[in-house]
Amino acid sequence: MAAVTGSRRARRIHAALAYLALSALVVFFLFPLLWILGLSLKTRAQTFADAPVWLWWPTFEHYADVLFRKDFLKAFLNTLIVSGSAVVLSLCVGVPAAYAFARFPFRSSSFLFFSLLVMRMLPPVAVLVPMYVILSDIGLTTTHLSVVLAYTTFSLPLVVWVMRGFFDDLPVEVEECAWIDGATRRQAFQRVVLPLARPGMVASAILCLQLAWNDFLFAAVLTNNDTQTLPVLMAGFTGGDSGVDWGPMTASGVLVILPVIVFSFMAQKHLVAGLSSGAVKG
Amino acid sequence: MSEISGAAPRPFGDLSAAPAPRGLRHAPLDRFFLPFAVGPTFLVMLAIFGLPLLFSLWLSLTGWSPQQGLFGGAYVGLANFEDLLSDRVFMGSLGVTCGFTAAAVSAQLLLGLGIALLLNLDLPGMRIFRTALVLPMMVTPIVGALCWKLLLDPHHGVVNHWLGTRIVWLGVPETALIAVWLVNVWHSTPYVALILLAGLRSLPHEPHEAAGIDGASRWQVFRHVTFPLLQPFLLVALLLRTIFEFRAFDNVYAMTGGGPANATMLLSMFTYLTSFVRFDFGLGAAAAWLMLLMSMVMCLLFIALLRRRGPR
């Protein structure tokens, strides 16, 4: 009996130590974000007070300010258009390919499959240099289309890799029934497989949306003031010195990351598979 | 020991494909299903990836300015590459990038492993901790860097307030590099932790139970059972993080812009500045190609790993 209580006590101490370590980690990982949230709810005087203010009545003046600013709303709309189009394009092009890779391996299919992975992993700046030169020669830079095409370099591979995992998990018998009933491959794919793969498509759409929403490099080079996305707008804030008004800057920062955090939690189950290019299933 | 490795989990996505169905009659139109399904992906890849990279090779041998046509540059041979290799900023940048990648990846792996082991404990409330700890990796990198820039602000930053100092963190070469490293660790460690946590969850229970019955201590179980079983996942995390840290850009751009005194001039930043600020596209393309070759090696390693460890 004594031995049992002893081990129970040891277990309690272990648990307490684990909670302590986890709490310290949470402070490190969450504090910067909570601090920014706090700054966005402070008046200018509170932000620049000599000692940091820890308790205050939140003010929403900066949010009201930002939400009525033309450049913020425009950038928000641009981000939505550009990342939405990239997701739709990648899904339309990539899902049938992923299905073919999963079900009908053909000659050189694994070469093609792995070159998609390479496309996802090579440094974006290396692709951006020639892409910029070609697009500006055609006169496409500063258009939404150029950014959508650039985003496809990472969202298409992501869709193909994640969707292939989903199709692999789908039992072949489902389509075999359709084939035996006389359906062609295309009919079986459209009427039987696609409806079943909808959760996978939603997950890969969210993962692509997250990457496109967060991208800065491509948008910084390929857009101008009219077509700039939210991260580019945010980078404009950071360029200045501490003389910049922190209120609107932090408020827009919070508004930029809020949607992407919501998306990410929606696809939480697939986050690991998506970000490791299917190497690890979460 | 051999039994344990024999029971090793298969962490990787199933890369083998179902056998193609045979013996079923298909409509003539169906013969074109495969080209129709894969063709568009192939075309898009060629158009936005293959051709630009080939063109980039041509650019690195010539050069380009906005006034001239695509192939208007004069052929200069390997002059751009020679310039690059004798460029002290580039060579410095190469060193900074390698050191930075090594430091960032090792810190992420160590911290990530610690977090994964803690989150894998069977204690109440772990879901909440998990949610709180993965948050940074979801944050837009530019905004994350901005958060830290405000924390580290020399006049009104909370870090200087706590330390009672007036250090210009991002204005001194050493502290600037450390700050950029810290932000990268902050942003990407959760990602390593998630991969390793997925790994820990998929490990078989039997070897741990056997070790427990044999009277192994916690450390012995970790050292001789958990760690070897977790190795494939550690390798995946190591390679993926190396590939992604090697191309790091957003944090540096937002926090230091490559300065002070080129202390944080990562290769991506160098290529960006050369091409889009100095408009030297020949040199930029040469730098881009060298970066490509280096990350290609890492990618091929990763692919070799995927294929070797895949079930087959």
Keywords:
heterodimer; A: 282 residues; mainly alpha; MetI-like fold; 2 domains; 77% helix; B: 312 residues; Sugar ABC transporter permease (chain B); transport (chain B); membrane (chain B); MetI-like_sf (chain B); cell membrane (chain B)
The CATH architecture of the domain at 98-312 in chain B comes to Orthogonal Bundle
| Distance linking N and C termini of chain A | 41 Å
Question: Mind telling me which CATH architecture of the largest domain in chain A this is?
Answer: Orthogonal Bundle
Gyration radius of chain B (Cα, Å) is: 25 Å
Assembly category:
heterodimer
Shape of chain B: globular
CATH C-level class of the domain at 98-312 in chain B is Mainly Alpha
Mean pLDDT of chain B: 84
CATH-defined fold name of the largest domain in chain A = MetI-like fold
Helix content of chain B: 55-70%
Description:
The complex is a heterodimer of chains A (282) and B (312). Chain A folds into two domains: 2-40; 67-275, MetI-like (MetI-like fold). The radius of gyration of chain A is 24 Å and the shape is globular. Chain A is built from 14 helices and no strands. Chain A is an all-alpha fold and 282 residues long. In chain A, helix 4 packs across helix 10 (198-214), helix 5 (109-121) packs across helix 7 (144-169) and helix 7 (144-169) packs antiparallel against helix 10 (198-214). Chain B contains 13 helices and no strands. Chain B has helices spanning 2-6, 33-61, 79-85, 88-119, 126-138, 141-151, 158-163, 173-202, 206-213, 218-246, 250-255, 267-276, 281-309. In chain B, helix 4 (88-119) packs parallel to helix 8 (173-202) and helix 10 (218-246) packs antiparallel against helix 13 (281-309). The chains are: A mainly alpha (282), B mainly alpha (312). At the A-B interface, helix 1, helix 4, helix 5, helix 6 and helix 7 of A face helix 2, helix 4, helix 5, helix 6 and helix 8 of B.
